[in-house]
Amino acid sequence: MTTAPEEYDVIVVGAGPTGENVADRTAAAGLRTVVVESELVGGECSYWACMPSKALLRPVAALAGARGVAGAREAVGGALDPAAVLARRDSFTSHWRDDGQVKWLRDTGIELVRGHGRLAGERKVTVEGEDGSERLLTARYAVAVCTGSRPVLPPDVPGLAEARPWTNREATGSPAVPGRLAVVGGGVVGVEMATAWRALGSEVVLLVRGEGLLPRMEPFAGELVAEGLRAAGVDVRFGVSVTAVERVDGGGEVTLVLEDGERLAADEVLYATGRAPRTADVGLEQVGLKPGAWLDVDDSCTVLGVDGDWLYAAGDVNHRALLTHQGKYQARITGAAIVARAQRRPLDTARWGAHAASADSAGAPQVVFTEPEVAAVGLTLEAAERAGLRVTTVDHDLGAVAGASLYGDDYRGKARVVFDLDRQVLVGASFVGPGVAELLHSATVAVVGEVPIDRLWHAVPAYPTISEVWLRLLEGCRG
Ligand SMILES: Cc1cc2nc3c(=O)[nH]c(=O)nc-3n(C[C@H](O)[C@H](O)[C@H](O)COP(=O)(O)OP(=O)(O)OC[C@H]3O[C@@H](n4cnc5c(N)ncnc54)[C@H](O)[C@@H]3O)c2cc1C
Ligand SMILES: NC(=O)c1ccc[n+]([C@@H]2O[C@H](COP(=O)([O-])OP(=O)(O)OC[C@H]3O[C@@H](n4cnc5c(N)ncnc54)[C@H](O)[C@@H]3O)[C@@H](O)[C@H]2O)c1
């Protein structure tokens, strides 16, 4: 039985990083906001994605950092301590409890309704509780769908579902280190998890159907990461397809049958083959949209194809950029748009306006926490050319930078900027090498700020840091 409608100003469905930030913005503006969550407040990112994966990877980088410097190397003879690494990971996920996040909601004045949310018409959401009870919530101004994404398994591999493959949840949450781990997929999850579990002691084989890793990044990123994985002992194989998976009696070892007939045994198999939107059961049919689809939005994150400008979708679910920081950015834009419309103020949706998530396409940064790290922002050369821009690239060997050679002995790495010849600004930058993650924000500011190259010339990097690579890159752009 559905209870009497409960009225709010704003309803947010999904309390991942995106939903939390939409609610934060609208509540801060004085709008009565409720968040609906079916699992844990904090979402995939906090419990089965960013946080646990980076908690697994940070010790790998710390050890590699020490091993890369003579004098420090001698102090670190052993391998990682898996029990300590897993315990640290568990503490970063708060042992998969969301009390801390729930307290934050409460302290911020945001109400929480636990259960499965579904759109039930214009500005209406029903919430099905665990006990089957149903509540009807209505919104005076807006509903934001922030339900995220889930892993996709290829539908055409016999035996896969029965073999209980790992997805990102098991790969980030496993309480034990498998002896042998097969990883399918050469995207970000595949390379990061291959890095982590190999360092924790698993024998790892990485099976990639294409010819390189990280296909959306500059080609040298995938090449250097493949080199790093192989140096760590990962068996990286390209041009390989899995045609069937078998796990006898539902337990024991798993066997992967490859296209050429080879049978590969492992203890676990991780499928890291991409994401699908969590929209199959959120009531999209009630508002004339197709269940299971990514939600198409405009730059203010208002859902296209629904009248009245009351329905928003932000974060993974709109497929603009599947990254926590971009989801939180979209949340800030969405929150501002909801507040402006509630106050009957016009939206500023011009490029880089207060209500336009322009950076999603022009300046979204990403760090891949492998050994070596990859840090990239904006467009690759290929993407810039596809967009019809007249560009040139400047590449530089990071190992030739004084700060890099101090950072680690025999430092290997590479940097590239993509330079727009017509506008004289950078439209993309990529760095690969140990410790490059913290270099990235300088590039993000340059790309998003569209800083003219002649002004960037005056941004002096400190000596002796890896950032001095900027000097060589800018020299190359100025010709
Ligand atoms: C292994 C892995 C590592 C990653 N590492 C990084 C990283 O280092 N950096 C980075 O930027 N990104 C990373 N990502 C991507 C990042 O996790 C996502 O971009 C981010 O979680 C998206 O946030 P979101 O709020 O849109 O969705 P989610 O975090 O998925 O949250 C959605 C929430 O909605 C809830 N929900 C869904 N349906 C309903 C419903 N019907 N009713 C109520 N609640 C519902 C879910 O339970 C969930 O809590 C990683 C992803 C993976 C898989
Ligand atoms: N550090 C980070 O920022 C970080 C870390 C992990 C994940 N993420 C985000 O999460 C998202 C999901 O990551 P992901 O690695 O699952 O997806 P992805 O799209 O990055 O990579 C999936 C890979 O699997 C391959 N693939 C697809 N179907 C296949 C099949 N049937 N057989 C073999 N290979 C197949 C694809 O070609 C692709 O290379 C990404 O978009 C990423 O942005 C970010």
Automatic annotation (TrEMBL):
Residues 365-470 form the Pyridine nucleotide-disulphide oxidoreductase dimerisation domain. Its cofactor is FAD. Keywords: FAD, Flavoprotein, NAD. Gene3D superfamilies: 3.30.390.30, FAD/NAD(P)-binding domain. Residues 8-325 form the FAD/NAD(P)-binding domain. SUPFAM superfamilies: FAD/NAD(P)-binding domain (SSF51905), FAD/NAD-linked reductases, dimerisation (C-terminal) domain (SSF55424). InterPro entries: Class-I_Pyr_Nuc-Dis_Oxidored, FAD/NAD-bd_sf, FAD/NAD-binding_dom, FAD/NAD-linked_Rdtase_dimer_sf, Pyr_nuc-diS_OxRdtase, Pyr_nucl-diS_OxRdtase_dimer. Belongs to the class-I pyridine nucleotide-disulfide oxidoreductase family. This is NAD(P)/FAD-dependent oxidoreductase.
